[in-house]
């Protein structure tokens, strides 16, 4: 048997990378520190545990960049997308999953694969060169010891941002005489999808009182060395959004549009809080967009001011954690290899992509690149006209290294399609042209890989 490829980290990226390598016929050793060494954010020792939200965001592969990334990962035989589809929950036009069932199946599939060995225990230093080809996919909660070793090896200053977690509510504790089920604009193909969200209406007076309490609530205090760490703009704590202006939440997660209150259909709510199903049983719902750094006692008091949540019971309260990432444009080549140590690849959030799907996509790509290299086949990354290619191009040179910050996939990363109208009016045709071109180019790339 050939020398195994090692992967450090059993999150979304590491699990997907392990699957791709194993499916290519190569042995892989997946190192996961839990449960030997835990984190404050993880609840289980399962692989690919979803720590923050349970949403993979939009599943629209024609008009949305993340939906296109879903399509590409399915086309590439991705374990993460296959498992997400098997454990999907009604979520309108989004893809949400039962987080426990999802993690359990990913763990079972990798445990059962004959080419995969899972080793539990913390890797506290950079893997030795004697390991050979290695992928570091330790994610946003990289252990402090390993993070320090990586930073020492790269010669970089610490790069980090804060990421936040939304609270989860027991469904049977929501007052259904005030709340109702409906997806915004009744979006979705099935009745389940069209009623995937719980909605809590708020009038103007309640909204103003809620804002005052939110802003005054006791917050988590950061350590001295964390004071200058920024937030990721795509996952701001709800109180940070509120600090930007009293109308900010009404134009963000609490926008009162596309919904009609069946309890009082003639009255338009001033704001609406939505909760999205978090498990297949429908017993748990997370509060959409309500990532928070409020202390636990303050959370229960403030969130119970929301009509319908006066007696809410929480399966998990919100929290905040530090997310470490490297300066990939400066440190990595197009193969996701560390320029100063080509035996090391990086994948997932530690590379500066943001989001479950983006992290898993970089794991998929790192796994395929590592497997091809082990087999003696030259494999280029997908072209930048594809979602996966646009992401890897951005983090390995497309972004400005001096100002590099985590990025979700978006059409702004794609090369323009010539001859199309710009602006909002031309957006639908432009996005369709992007996705049509991407699907064609990604299919061609897969064909080249299969022939190699």
Automatic annotation (TrEMBL):
Gene Ontology annotations of biological process type: tRNA methylation; tRNA wobble uridine modification
Catalysed reactions, semicolon-separated: uridine(54) in tRNA + (6R)-5,10-methylene-5,6,7,8-tetrahydrofolate + NADPH + H(+) = 5-methyluridine(54) in tRNA + (6S)-5,6,7,8-tetrahydrofolate + NADP(+); uridine(54) in tRNA + (6R)-5,10-methylene-5,6,7,8-tetrahydrofolate + NADH + H(+) = 5-methyluridine(54) in tRNA + (6S)-5,6,7,8-tetrahydrofolate + NAD(+)
Q: Which EC number(s) are documented for this chain?
A: 2.1.1.74
Give a short account of what the protein does: Catalyzes the folate-dependent formation of 5-methyl-uridine at position 54 (M-5-U54) in all tRNAs.
Where does the record say this protein resides? Cytoplasm
The alphabetized UniProt keywords are:
Cytoplasm, FAD, Flavoprotein, Methyltransferase, NAD, NADP, Transferase, tRNA processing
Q: Is Secreted found in the keyword set?
A: no
Q: Kindly list the positions annotated as binding FAD.
A: 9-14
Primary location group: cytoplasm
What is the species listed in this Swiss-Prot or TrEMBL entry? Answer: Algicella marina
Would the keyword Transferase be found if you checked this record's keyword annotation? yes
Q: Which gene encodes it?
A: trmFO
Tell me the cofactors it needs.
FAD
What InterPro entries does UniProt report for this protein, alphabetically?
FAD/NAD-bd_sf, MnmG-rel, MnmG_N, TrmFO
- On the tree of life, the source organism's domain of life is Bacteria
Query: Signal peptide span per the entry?
Result: none
One GO cellular component assignment for this chain's record is:
cytosol
Q: What is this protein called?
A: Methylenetetrahydrofolate--tRNA-(uracil-5-)-methyltransferase TrmFO
**What SUPFAM superfamilies does its record include?**
FAD/NAD(P)-binding domain
Which family is this protein grouped under?
Belongs to the MnmG family. TrmFO subfamily.
**Coiled-coil residue windows:** none
- Single annotated GO MF: tRNA (uracil(54)-C5)-methyltransferase activity, 5,10-methylenetetrahydrofolate-dependent
